[in-house]
Amino acid sequence: MSTHAVESGERLRAVHVPAAARTQLAWLGAGLVLGFAVPFVFADMLALPRDVYYAVYVVIVVAFVIAWARATGQSLAEGLRRRPFLTVVLALAAVGVLTIVVLRSEGTARPDGIEMFATILWRGVVYGAADGLLLSVFPILAVLAAFQATRLTRRLTGRVAITLVALAASLAMTAAYHLGYSDFRSEKVRQPIAGDVVWSAPTLLTLNPVGAPVAHAGMHVAAVVHSYETDLFLPPHE
What we know:
This protein is an all-alpha fold. The protein has 8 helices and no strands. The chain has helices spanning 3-45, 50-72, 76-79, 84-103, 113-147, 156-179, 190-206, 211-226. Helix 6 runs antiparallel to helix 7 (190-206).
């Protein structure tokens, strides 16, 4: 290959990488706005019933993540093949830690029978998985996509730096989302931000998109069972 061809290829990569990074940054910015706006508009301003609000939230989150993946050429299905065993182990470990956190909170009365089963599926599994998708999977994989063609990925220190940036993006998303609820616009927001480190870890360490949703759903299921009328988990709160 000629020197001219090599130089031309390097110039093309130099142009392409910043463009890809700018695209992912734009999507991350849109995600932060969306994460705040959905609870602010539909929970705080419109005061939708909790389960109706969850339906709106889940549809918006899934549509947004699909739009991002298609627009930027990301394959979530391909990511499911990344270290599946380790992802499951880390996700179950995160569920264990988060369940302990939930059990340390005050227990409340809860419904029984079919109503309880339906609530576990809806508020625990479905809403929890959607939370994990928006708060962790999207920001982490967007940061990865922004840096994947750069030299940082060739060195351990660079990969560590990318991981820290991805964690910061997930923490920012978690903060923006919870600040959309009026009762989290206080020191209370520190608690979900701290929790984000735990429920994001399975996806952050393996880049498998299933890890964080499983961990987050596990926490929500524990909250439904132990603290059905919680004032910390499962917002919006009355």
